[in-house]
Design goal:
With 279 residues, this protein is mainly β. It has a single domain, classed as 6 Propeller (Neuraminidase), CATH 2.120.10. It contains 1 helix and 21 strands. The strands form 5 sheets. It has a 5-stranded antiparallel β-sheet, with no helix packed on it. A 4-stranded antiparallel β-sheet has the order 3-4-5-6, with no helix packed on it.
């Protein structure tokens, strides 16, 4: 079902570089809790909190989402092709790289390499502090996000700062740690050029939801302490399409797609938002 964007959504764009182009409501009785996206130029990959990998046929025409249609779904499995145990299948972050998929997890924090049909290949080495779930505020506040660049390697972050602190620590697999002030929970990270990352944050309460997209330039960090430039703020007090956005992927040089996790709730929706980001 296609949705018409409210004019008010555009009013929340704090920087003209980011423009919302379209929204799309995905309706399915079988697919819920999409927490991450990746795109290989043909197939759109969607990852569920239940440890299920979905392949979608995906088409855009004239900067509008024309179709998102399920091709096939795969349970995430270990090297022996056995489905991951429940406590190990809380999949959250997703990266497509060289015809393979890389996934970050909560509950049992880790990053792993998978085939395109969801079979584990190997575990990726991550900083020791990220492995211990007791360092996190809760088992559900672990490695929600994942992105990659040749320069920095894989980058991830605890969804919420350790031990209730107000500073996010962003970790790379090339032994770099960056610090930024927390304004919400980090649900996704996505490189859009060599040094710049889009940071998706969620501030979620019982009565109000705020989604923020910010630009983080790693090259401009001083002594690994960084600042972020807010590009877009969506507020449920004013905007119809604010929901639990967790997934984000780059489609082309300036086109991006974002998805909301419906929490398998009749009160929430799976929305896709298509937007552009220009220099």
């Amino acid at each position: 079902m296609k949705l018409i964007l409210l004019i008010s959504v555009l009013l929340y764009t704090l920087n003209a570089k980011l423009t919302i182009l379209d929204t799309y409501e995905f309706q399915s009785n079988d697919i819920h809790e999409l927490s991450a996206l990746a795109y290989d130029g043909k197939v759109l990959y969607g990852l569920s909190d239940y440890g299920v990998l979905h392949h979608f046929d995906f088409k855009i025409e004239n900067n509008k989402i024309k179709m998102i249609k399920l091709i096939k779904s795969y349970d995430l499995k270990n090297k022996n092709s056995v489905r991951l145990k429940k406590k190990k299948r809380d999949a959250e972050g997703l990266v497509y790289l060289n015809n393979k998929l890389y996934i970050s997890f909560e509950q049992k924090p880790r990053i792993e390499k998978y085939s395109l049909n969801g079979i584990k290949i190997k575990k990726i080495k991550i900083p020791k502090v990220l492995k211990d779930i007791d360092n996190y505020k809760s088992k559900n506040k672990a490695l929600e996000s994942l992105t990659y660049s040749d320069k920095y390697g894989f980058i991830t972050a605890p969804e919420e700062p350790f031990l209730g602190k107000k500073i996010h620590k962003i970790y790379t697999t090339k032994n770099k740690v960056f610090s930024v002030k927390a304004s919400g929970l980090i649900t996704e990270l996505e490189f859009f050029d060599k040094n710049n990352i889009l940071v998706l944050e969620r501030d979620w309460t019982k009565f109000r939801r705020v989604i923020t997209l910010s630009k983080l330039n790693l090259k401009n960090c001083k002594q690994d302490i960084c600042s972020m430039e807010k590009l877009l703020v969506l507020d449920s007090d004013k905007d119809k399409f604010v929901d639990n956005y967790e997934g984000l992927t780059k489609l082309t040089n300036n086109l991006f797609l974002m998805v909301s996790d419906d929490n398998d709730s009749v009160w929430q929706k799976t929305y896709f938002i298509l937007f552009s980001l220009t220099d």
